[in-house]
Model the fold of this input.
Amino acid sequence: MSERSLNINIPVLTRVEGEGALDLSIENGKIGELRLRIFEPPRLFEKFLEGRSHMEVPDMVARICGICPVAYQMSAVQALESILGLEPGPWLTDMRRLFYCGEWIESHSLHIHLLAAPDFLGFSNAIDLAGKHPDIVRRGLRLQEAGNAIVRLLGGRSVHPVGARVGGFWRSPTKADATRLLEELKTLLPQAEALVRWTASLPLPDEKQDFESVALGKAGEYPMNHGRIISSKGLDIDIAGFEKEFSESQVPHSTALHCHHNGQDYLVGPLARMNLNHDTLPDSTHKLAEETGICFPSANLFHSIVARALELHLALTEAIRLLQNYKPADTPYQQATHRAGIGFGATEAPRGILWHRYELDETGSIVSARIVPPTSQNQARIEADLRTALNNFGLDKPEADLRQHAETIIRNYDPCISCATHFLKLKIKQT
Amino acid sequence: MNAHIHPPVRVLCIGSPQEPDNLGFLIGHTLIGHFNPDQVEVLALDRPGPRLIEHMRGADTVILVDAVKSGASPGTLHNLEGHALDGLVAHHTSSHGFGLAETLALAEKMGELPAHLKFVGLEIGSESPSPDNIIQLVKAITEAVREASSVSSKP
Done:
């Protein structure tokens, strides 16, 4: 073993959403300090929500993220409707799943093609990748557009959509618009199949790690909008139990809180979902998963990109199914009377479980809000992964290679730093 | 993924609804009703990143409108096309670091640039653009559209 000492500082992580950095020191051939530093300013959304009407929440939380606004809206309406006593009917349940399919398709395609793939093929960015493989990047952008089109159908626009509300959607898409989109989606299914095969053919590192996968499950389908919180270590709880089971803590180097389960890091996101729910994939996606030769559950975190591609195929398949028998609803939303209470929402954002808790007063105003996004849940896992994977990679490797491998590991999680930044606890000492 | 027929000329105004980066948003709304909608489509895009490629697709001519900080005097108009666009420096860093320059480079690598691409920008300073600046910018866009329409209408 080398007795090398080295400081690696990546001051600004590229090809991730938001502002973060990595500080890594190697002392006498061993990793010393390792900090995924998130320095993007806190965004204070939970405080902004206090005192606002519950009807404003879907539009406000959509502003947290330009990539996964649907997830924020869906977790919020689930929590608020549980307080108001609203139960989504079959039409709304289907349309919310369709809405979510759109977000998974656009987010996963963006990450696979523009952010992660260059790492595995030796390109410094997607522009260089497109120079050599234009058809692959073009395919990615077409799939991303398809996801945007689904979100636009129900949300009115693809970024920060405005179509969702507590109780349903403000309007029901026309049959003609739904049919037009259905025909376009059908033409893309072969491209989604090709994408799965292509990701499985990438030269991914072969490395296994011991970690706990946590995802929604037992939903009767591959989870998006509902389910229990389950894990690979036997956890099986109602979403209301999240606060007691998982702990959040602040670390000095990050404006995002770190989450732990029983004091340990854990994984959320596509690989965790696939590990826990692969038996609920539609037949066509399940067959593709078998073709990849990867046996899920997988302990290789680099299989995340394949899980992402499989989920994209699943989402496209599901979107086609849901649009095939589409009928506009006469009443796309339910009205509710104000009611005080506490409610919980948990859905599967593209990057993993997004958990919300709201308290309403008797006028329907928000008393308190708590939002736990997936990237803050993955943050401790990323740091643990870096320690293990860089050791396995070889700390005596050239600095540039270590730097590149560290960035590849971080990007593999598709971190959304802007989502994860949280308000800091402030202690004021008065004398 | 837009099945309807688009007009041949598209004006894409890039900017946030929020100050101070709201020039494209203002111009996009100023231009509502300014052109024949059968010939010219105007869209205000809030930091589109790589989604710009989707918005350019299907148009014969795309005119991009954006605020510029190049060191020139505030109010200076920038008209770029052809190779002059290669020097465009991105200042709209969208999610994942994909700004305007990166997106155009990506589109070029994939052969997704429109047949005719123009950029009309207004140099901005620390103050909001003056009404005169806005009028000059609208005139420059109108002229670019007129030139593009004459090219597009030729057989």
Remarks:
- The two ends of chain A are 54 Å apart (CA to CA).
- The interface with chain B takes residues 14-17, 66-67, 110, 114-115, 125-127, 130-131, 134, 137-138, 141, 144-146, 148-149, 158-159, 180-181, 184, 418 of chain A (CB under 8 Å).
- Residues 90-121 of chain A form the longest helix (32 residues).
